[in-house]
Amino acid sequence: MNSQLLQYLKKRVSHQHLSKRLKRQINRYDDTFYNRFRLYRQNFKYSSTILKHILYAFGLLEKGRRNSLDLRIEKRTIFFDDLPPDFDGLRLLQLSDIHIDAMIDSGAHLKRTIAQQDFDLCVITGDFHSRTFSVNGRSHAKMADLASVLNCKYGIFGVLGNHDYIESTFYLEKMGIRILLNENIVLEHGQSKLWLVGTDDVYYYKTDDLTKALQRIPHSDFKIMLAHSAELVIKAHQCGMRYYICGHTHGGQICLPGGIPIITNTSGRRKFVSGLWRYKQMRGYTSRGTGSSGLQVRFNCPPEITIHVLKNSTSFTGNRK
Fold it and tell me: What CATH number is attached to the domain comprising 289?
């Protein structure tokens, strides 16, 4: 890491946060190169090779690869009694688990699809990259190309996932993607305020700090939580989050008919694996993912781009979803 990058990161996060992150990244590098026969989700190289040969033998490999580009536009209208009135109708575009360096078309179809959508705000809930053992310059170039079509009124915000090195923050922010590292940002329109709260990865790096991320936010203000995975659901509810947006699971990526996941890649409840869910008074959504991890195939679990339309229910008289 060069001195410019190191100084940048020291300004962005605490010494403790940065040290923990970098130590875990070094351990991951060692696992990748010195423990090659460990089959775990963070290092798919060898398990993916086995799966590739199996699918090829059954004539399913090309179909699975085509499925990985079969993007679905999921539009979800969510109602809140306390949504600030000036944000009624806000269209929030969510991308998650892009893994752009592994996309078989380098993100070309994704870019074309996004360019056709209308949205006011864009959030990216982690795993910009696929490789887990280095900072990938080619991946950053592809993300910069994708970011060129993410123009919207309130800007682009994101959090890092378990595939993302913290050094990527520097390059992503140069593209205009503001990364929330246990931080928050306020959006203002008219007389209304809406807060985005983002944590660092809770799944692998465990460098999340929700208490720090909530600093200076009045408890009663409307808050949207951005996290890579659903492990912080209970804490987020206790802290007064109204909407929790995440990804990480890929919805299973390879599922049985009916979208039943074989592997969920989470210790949480199955209801948090994909789609809309509720935890007490807090609403939530888990994306099936925009890209694919490991082997670039999908079965019974198409990738998605999600458009969340936030509505104030006090001014609505129709049927709620």
Answer: 3.60.21.10
Q: What does the alpha-carbon distance between residue 128 and residue 160 come to, in Å, rounded to a whole number? A: 8
Give this prediction's pTM. 0.92
Looking at the 3D structure of the chain, how many domains does it have? 1
Q: How far apart are CA 305 and CA 313, in angstroms?
A: 24
pLDDT value for 185: 98
Q: How far apart are CA 249 and CA 125, in angstroms?
A: 12
Percent of the chain with pLDDT over 90: 80
- Crossing angle of helices 108-115 and 137-147, in 10° steps, is 20
Q: With both helix axes pointing from N to C terminus, report the angle between 15-34 and 3-12 in degrees, rounded to the nearest 10.
A: 120
Q: Which residue has the tokens 């929330």?
A: 180
Which residue type, as a one-letter code, is found at position 46?
A: Y
Q: Edge-to-edge strands of the sheet including 304-312?
A: 72-80, 304-312, 90-95, 121-125, 156-159, 177-179
d(CA 197, CA 157): 10
The amino acid at residue 104 is I
The range of the structural domain enclosing residue 166 comes to 3-315
Q: Residue 198: which of 147, 175, 146, 173 has the closest Cα? A: 173
Render pLDDT for 266-304 as a digit per residue (tens, 0 to 9): 776 788 999 999 999 999 999 999 999 989 999 999 999
Residue 321 domain flag: no
